[in-house]
Amino acid sequence: KGSGKPKKSARTVGDVLGKYHPHGDLACYEAMVLMAQPFSYRYPLIEGQGNWGSPDDPKSFAAMRYTEAKLSAYSELLLSELGQGTSEWQDNF
């Protein structure tokens, strides 16, 4: 939750790999970095602590063991709308 304190990025990446996408930690972390960079998205989906890169060199972010993250207020708003029933959900596996 965005209201809590940030978690280590390595922990979040590990949870994602273990539960949803078992293919590679670097791809997962780079996607997370992109969602945390305020210069990449108009509304960042992740609030990051640590070195998440700069507009001059977006790939200059720190390793996941040095960064922490939590959901931004905007992403919490998006997730809160999932239960409104605007589309039908069904299992795809």
From TrEMBL:
<dbReference type="GO" id="GO:0003918">
    <property type="term" value="F:DNA topoisomerase type II (double strand cut, ATP-hydrolyzing) activity"/>
</dbReference>
<dbReference type="GO" id="GO:0007059">
    <property type="term" value="P:chromosome segregation"/>
</dbReference>
<keyword id="KW-0799">Topoisomerase</keyword>
<dbReference type="GO" id="GO:0003677">
    <property type="term" value="F:DNA binding"/>
</dbReference>
<dbReference type="GO" id="GO:0005737">
    <property type="term" value="C:cytoplasm"/>
</dbReference>
<keyword id="KW-0413">Isomerase</keyword>
<keyword id="KW-0238">DNA-binding</keyword>
<feature type="active site" description="O-(5'-phospho-DNA)-tyrosine intermediate">
    <location>
        <position position="66"/>
    </location>
</feature>
<dbReference type="InterPro" id="IPR013758">
    <property type="entry name" value="Topo_IIA_A/C_ab"/>
</dbReference>
<dbReference type="InterPro" id="IPR002205">
    <property type="entry name" value="Topo_IIA_dom_A"/>
</dbReference>
<keyword id="KW-1003">Cell membrane</keyword>
<dbReference type="Pfam" id="PF00521">
    <property type="entry name" value="DNA_topoisoIV"/>
</dbReference>
<dbReference type="GO" id="GO:0006265">
    <property type="term" value="P:DNA topological change"/>
</dbReference>
<protein>
    <submittedName>
        <fullName>ParC</fullName>
    </submittedName>
</protein>
<dbReference type="GO" id="GO:0005524">
    <property type="term" value="F:ATP binding"/>
</dbReference>
<dbReference type="InterPro" id="IPR050220">
    <property type="entry name" value="Type_II_DNA_Topoisomerases"/>
</dbReference>
<keyword id="KW-0472">Membrane</keyword>
<feature type="domain" description="Topo IIA-type catalytic">
    <location>
        <begin position="1"/>
        <end position="93"/>
    </location>
</feature>
<dbReference type="InterPro" id="IPR013760">
    <property type="entry name" value="Topo_IIA-like_dom_sf"/>
</dbReference>
<dbReference type="GO" id="GO:0009330">
    <property type="term" value="C:DNA topoisomerase type II (double strand cut, ATP-hydrolyzing) complex"/>
</dbReference>
